[in-house]
Request: fold
Amino acid sequence: MSAQVVVCNGCCCGRVEKGHNEVPIDALKSAWDEHELHNQVKLTISGCLGPCSMHNVSLLKTENGLTWLGNLTEREHYDALIHWACDIAEGQGVDLPEILQERRFVRLQEVVIREQE
Reply:
């Protein structure tokens, strides 16, 4: 397996009752089946990934590292995830579609600093 797409469907992401856009889980699963992506790109629908302020978060894992995406508000964003996965499966590299480039963010590790007594 060369890559993984982790799509948050946790406490905030996809919760229309909280004012967020729906995460098209069934459409993503259908696309993975239709394009036979399961052996090359794993699709994981997860619980909360953490950066809740970004709403509708996804994480792309490749051998080159992690790419965090947030504010995936349009169906076109998820279609771009599908196209990216198809490109990966066909061995065409890991370039992120332009529509997703503006959705990238860097997730910093939480740091706890204790004051000296």
